[in-house]
Amino acid sequence: MVERAEEGFCVAAFLVVTGVLFVNVVLRYVFSASTSWAEELIRYLMIWITFIGGGVCVRRGAHIRMDFALSVMSRRAGLRLTQGVYLLAAVFCAALCWYGLRLMLFTVARGQTTPAMGLPMWVPYAAMPLGSALMVLHFIQEIFRKEAREE
User: Fold this and answer.
1) Global pTM?
2) How far apart are CA 115 and CA 143, in angstroms?
3) Taking the CB of residue 15, how many other CB atoms lie within 10 A of it?
4) How many CB atoms are closer than 10 A to CB 111?
5) Packing angle, helices 127-150 and 75-110, rounded to 10
6) How far apart are CA 42 and CA 39, in angstroms?
7) Contact, 70 vs 82, CB < 8 A?
8) What's the pLDDT score for residue 55?
9) Shortest CA distance to 118 belongs to which of 32, 50, 47, 44?
10) What distance lies between CA 51 and its chain's CA centroid?
11) What is the pLDDT of residue 22?
12) pLDDT value of residue 94
């Protein structure tokens, strides 16, 4: 369920970014006019795509990794090393989630809004704690999936 929501969001957001960017380019170069909010919307959607897409990449094993050490280790030692790396990554993402949440709450308390769209500034900042929490979830799932495959 979470997996479909993540991927659906990323696809929909990317389609919106593509469409808005195309329309804005046509407006600018064909009609010598552009929207004031398009660049801001694109920027914030790209931030959301990055953080939510990070969770998708964890689940698919698509993050960059160096597996030279794994090729010279036994299968069991390689599994333990991979699980340790995933655990460290989960801890890092949990810290990122915590500090991202604090930053988001700071913007809520200040009542900041985005310049062009007037959107509450916490909306773009919410991508960091939510995306990081999803990455923690997927790293923990991967630790247990690898253990289950080994047995």
Assistant:
1) 0.90
2) 42
3) 10
4) 9
5) 160
6) 5
7) yes
8) 94
9) 44
10) 1
11) 95
12) 98
DSSP string, 86-129: HHHHHHHHHHHHHHHHHHHHHHHHHT-B-TTT--BTHHHHTHHH
Query: Which tokens belong to 50?
Result: 């990055």
**CA 150, chain centre distance (Å):** 29
Instruction: Render the burial of 64-83: b for 16+ CB within 10 Å, e for the rest.
Output: eeeeeeeeeeeeeebbeebb
Per-residue model confidence as pLDDT tens digits over 83-140:
999 999 999 999 999 999 999 999 999 999 999 999 999 999 999 999 999 999 999 9
The pLDDT tens digits for 39-49 are 999 999 999 99
The runs of H, that is alpha helices, within the chain are 2-31, 38-60, 68-71, 75-110, 122-125, 127-150
What pLDDT is recorded for position 45?
98
Locus of tokens 């253990």: 147
